[in-house]
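During the reporting period the student researcher (J.K.) took over the structure-prediction task from the postdoctoral fellow and processed the backlog of single-chain submissions. One of the processed entries is reproduced below for the supervisory committee.
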Amino acid sequence: MEISHNETFIEIYRLCYCKLKLLRLEGFKIFIAEDDVWYSEILRYHLELNPDFEVRTFDSGKKLKAALHLKPNVVTLDYSLPDTNGKELLAYIKSESPDTQVVIISGQEDISTAVDLLKEGAYDYLVKDDDTKDRIWKTILHINENVSLKDEINILKSEVEKKYDFSKTIKGNSPAIRKVFRLIEKAISNNITVSITGETGTGKEVIAKAIHYNSERKKEPFIAINVAAVPSELIESELFGHERGAFTGAQTRRKGKFEEAGKGTIFLDEIGEMDANMQSKLLRVLQEREVVRIGGNEVVKLKCRVVVATHRDLLQEVKKGNFRQDLYYRLLGLPIDLPPLRARKEDVLILTKHFIDEYAKENGVNPKKLSEQANKKLLAYSFPGNIRELKAVIELATVLADGDEIEPNNINFPSTDPLSDLTLEVKSLKEYTNIIIKHFLDKHNNNVIEAAKELQIGKSTIYRMLKEEHIN
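J.K. obtained the following structure tokens:
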């Protein structure tokens, strides 16, 4: 279950840059509202030295208002137009075209007026003098840089959202993965807490991001924290934040991850590793939907969605006394259990092709093909590291393959699985059978019933072999 967000940030940035170049063909619009025709033309001439600037002039507030539907990037506004004053026109511009930046130009230096206008939303306040045109030039260049940055951020967000269109980018067609698709659909249509379980490498964070970026919260932050990776003495500060001086080393106020998430999503990975003391504090936060930074009194109301993940069976951890029962039920919400790759063998070759194509795209080479024997070798392996392991194996095989085809000897498994190279050594049928039985008993912690179920044989057959063949 791999989403193609593994493309490098540089590639995404290149795509964004190309889109920005297309956007900028429309030009950076500057409107000059000035009743002094001579001064207006001086400003116009000066600004049009930049070929990317589209400059228009207006000698009254009425004419400027009529053109605001064109959404200029900047308006340079004479504070004393004949038919209106700067403050009223500023308010009108900000209401009709909120993204337009307004630079006030006045014949008088009045500090109180300048402060008032800046509070009302003006970008800058300039006094007419010999240096004004140069100061306007610098101010507008600065605004242009900010607009470009905003465009880049919006396009990057758009590209990220496309990458998390799970119906197109989560690879697989097995019954197990189709069940996951249905649960994701349910998760994105509401704000219920989601608990994701699955072995390491099955793609739990990928699913969390898919839920976030396909939900109504997609424009808001996605904040992820691996609970197991943060020392226990620091986890409270990481999650809830702290005030300056709250403890040794707390030199400034710091927002916690819950506060950073805002109206977005907080993803708590490996929640099963949280200690009992912190579990109690997290439960209170989730119940009250509010946090108080360490060392502070201010109550911060929470508006974020909570998604958690773990490779552990939390219900079993509750029974063992390692996880609070009340927190378990608070977090359960909509459970999504990700199947291991060995339970969705139909998807191995689909994922393999995806990783080969992705590698070829990232490295500017033609994609290679798997030989029939290489296919068989992949399908015979159980992939204990799941999708993460498959991706690493395929990337290495692509590098090692000399020709256009990946052969079995190019495929190297980092884990030791007796079934992966089963046919590479000549053994008797009885020896092969013993290896297979031993493998599935190890896999299921010597649970004969589970091993027999997966092998689709009777449990009595395994008991007989355990007795006769001395499998241990």
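The committee noted the following: The longest strand covers residues 28-33.
J.K. will present the remaining backlog at the next meeting.
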